[in-house]
Amino acid sequence: MSNIIKKDGYDYCFDASACSICQARCCTGESGYIHVSTDEIKKISNFLNLEIADFMQKFLFKHGYRYSIKERKCGESYECAFYNREANGCMIYEVRPMQCMTFPFWDYYKNRVDELKLECPGVIDV
Ligand code: SF4
Ligand code: SF4
C-alpha cells in the first residue's frame, strides 16, 4: 500500500514512511508553539486521565490568547513534552492536536517548500 499522501492546493506530497527513520524532527528541534484548542484540551486531559486544570498546569502555557504545549530542553534543542524519545513517538498520538495531525500540509509552507524540506524528510515533489 502506498504511503504517499497528496493534498489539493499543495505542490508537494508527503511520504509517511519517512517518519519511521526521521527521529521526529517535527516534534523536536527549534523551540516553537504547539497550539491546542479548548476541545483538544478536553480530549487530551481525558486521554491522560487528568483533570483539565491539572493537565493545563502541567503541560500547557499561555501564548497570546491561545495555549501551547510545553517543551523540554534537550541539549541544544527542544522537544515537545509528549515526545517519547525511547519509542520515537508521540505519547498522545491518538488525540494529538490538529496542528500535528495536519503537518506538513500547513498554509505557511505552501510557498516555502524548500524550508519545509529541511525540516521534514518525508516531503517530496509532486
Ligand atoms: S518531520 Fe516529517 S518525516 Fe519526520 S516525523 Fe515529522 S512528519 Fe514524519
Ligand atoms: S503532541 Fe505529539 S505529534 Fe504533536 S509535537 Fe508533541 S509529540 Fe509531536
UniProtKB/TrEMBL annotation:
UniProt domain HTH cro/C1-type: residue ranges: 30-55
Superkingdom of this protein's organism: Bacteria
One Pfam family cited in the UniProt record for this chain: CxxCxxCC
Protein name: YkgJ family cysteine cluster protein
